[in-house]
Amino acid sequence: MNHSRNLPTGSKAYAKTAVFTALTVPDSLLNDHNLKAGTWGLMHIEQGMVQFFVKDNISPLAALSAGDTFVILPEEKHHIRVSENAAFYI
User: Fold this and answer.
1) What is the secondary structure of the chain as a DSSP string?
2) Cα separation of 23 and 35, whole Å?
3) In this structure, are residues 8 and 41 in contact, taking their beta carbons and an 8 Å threshold?
4) For residue 24, what pLDDT is reported?
5) Are 62 and 79 in contact (CB under 8 A)?
6) pTM for this structure?
7) C-beta separation of 83 from 48 below 8 A
8) pLDDT computed for residue 5 by the predictor
9) For the chain, does the N or the C end have fewer beta carbons within 10 angstroms?
């Protein structure tokens, strides 16, 4: 499922992370951070659940599960929480 955010027309991937799990997800993703201006992210969930939070919100903006993708906006302060069986990449 695409959660109603879209990449700009003509966007092209320039990098891809490793597949992260609950054991390998970097601490930086679990704490508030943001993408630089003009940089968009596309998260792909392979298994488990990933919750996406915008800074200062106690409820997730999105709860993502296997097969979902989610667009991360430039300069949007956010963090994630992952289930024990999560596997995802950006």
Assistant:
1) -B-S--PPTT------PPPEETTT--HHHHS-B-BPTT--EEEEEEESEEEEEETT-SS-SEEEETT-EEEEPBT--EEEEE-TT-EEE-
2) 23
3) no
4) 97
5) no
6) 0.90
7) yes
8) 83
9) N
